[in-house]
Predict the structure.
Amino acid sequence: MVRTKITARIPPDLADSLRRIAALKDRSVSDVVEDAIIRAFSDRSEAEHAALTVKLDSIARRLGSIEKSQETLFELSAHTARFAMSVAPDIPDMDRAALNARGSARFQNVIAAIAARLSSGKSVWKEQFAEPAPGQPTVGVAAE
């Protein structure tokens, strides 16, 4: 195997220890240094891998929570739509165009209000269910 020469400066006591270990193991100083470097790199790699695995597990748990929340929201929306459609009266043909226009305007107003509220950093979710920031009073939850 071809090797590249590298010069490193180390304290004298460490150099003495390195020579003694090489002699005890019946290996060259270069071999002992190479083994130490390989071990240092592999330990770091394993530590980085473990840290990355922990972080990915945390992200996976959060994504699972988001997925469950989305499923719950979808179910709520579906049941709400079904209920609204089951109790809404039939619209006579002559009133349909006017009611569709009025409904469209109301829908646009609701969407604009939701967008404005979310862009200001407010939401019903944050007000009712999210944990308050440290030092912030709890809003919308009765004191125990």
